């Protein structure tokens, strides 16, 4: 099996060539398009499955490879990475590990997977304070146990000042839990700066849905011991010797938080992560942001440092006009959300601008 360190560098042009042209697809923030390597691998995996030529142990190699690649992408040791299916499952593990009466800070309007898992513990005194995105750091206080936030907000693409949050949390002894789902894949991210991170790979990382990752800092046990509430055979120290009770011997590293994987998505996750770990993420960010800023300029808006453009759309007219012109976008929180990624270029900008111009006229 090829080591992640041995992957060849891929240029932006080379990466773009891997995606099937889909004019007007401006929805990476909802669902990334698969590169050709992903679809080819999935087709092969289905053929092997239908021919009875695969097994759980062979699928397990895809999970292990994905774990290694994600660790490289977010710059942490592989032993810090656990696998799961969705962010909400991982957030549920964090929420279940909070002491009774814990205070949690969440971003006002953050995606529900980073909010609901904490709200459901209200019966044991867990309280959630919702604060504006630009006030997260200043909201941390000595009573705060956890700061849970998406680095990039789902509804609008705004980026949290992570450094300020980290400093505030460290100053008050609070734990940081950061969702990287809307960040990993278009910008450089490092999980090592947070106590806990979670990430679904089916958006900007262009993997099939149902592959997600958790990272856990090695010193977290001293401040917030995480309870592996989803522990099953796959969290065992020796996976294939953990299929039956009564004895339980969980892995000694982050694998103890593993959730039994849905096999086929992991086959497709490997080539997706191979692509993004082979790219210069600074160059990806520059491409995505440049195209988004060309769109902003066409609307007379100021440039920004993110690839998502969110426009007021209370009646859905903008989204309807874009859809009628062949653009795939999303309606979120009373706005239309337009997301630019590697497969997008100036032709998509022109399509979207023309659709909105026709809507105004």
Note the gap between the termini: 57 Å
Share of helix, binned: 25-40%
Q: What name does CATH use for the topology of the largest domain?
A: Aspartate Aminotransferase, domain 2
Going by CATH, the homologous superfamily of the largest domain would be: Type I PLP-dependent aspartate aminotransferase-like (Major domain)
Give me a quick take on this structure:
It contains eleven helices and ten strands. With 361 residues, it is α/β, with parallel strands linked by helices.
Set down the secondary structure blueprint:
Layout (H helix, E strand, L loop, with lengths): L11 H5 L19 H15 L5 H19 L6 E4 L2 H10 L6 E5 L8 H4 L7 E5 L4 H4 L4 E7 L11 H11 L2 E5 L16 E5 L11 E5 L46 H16 L2 H18 L9 E5 L4 H8 L5 E3 L2 E5 L6 H15 L1
Parallel strand pairs: 2-3, 2-4, 4-5, 5-6
Antiparallel strand pairs: 1-7, 6-7, 8-10, 9-10
Note down, in words, how this protein is organized.
It is a single chain. The strands form two sheets. A seven-stranded mixed β-sheet has the order 1-7-6-5-4-2-3, with helices on both faces. Strands 8-10-9 form a three-stranded antiparallel β-sheet, covered by helices on one side. Helix 5 links the parallel strand 2 (103-107) and strand 3 (127-131). The protein is an alpha/beta fold. The relative contact order is 0.17. The protein has helices at residues 12-16, 36-50, 56-74, 87-96, 116-119, 136-139, 162-172, 263-278, 281-298, 317-324, 346-360, and strands at 81-84, 103-107, 127-131, 144-150, 175-179, 196-200, 212-216, 308-312, 330-332, 335-339. The protein is globular and about 65 Å long. The longest helix has 19 residues, at 56-74. Helix 3 (56-74) packs parallel to helix 8 and helix 9 (281-298) packs parallel to helix 11 (346-360). It folds into two domains: 9-35 and 280-360, Alpha-Beta Complex (Aspartate Aminotransferase, domain 1), CATH 3.90.1150.10; 56-277, 3-Layer(aba) Sandwich (Aspartate Aminotransferase, domain 2), CATH 3.40.640. Helix content is 35%, strand content 14%. The termini are far apart.
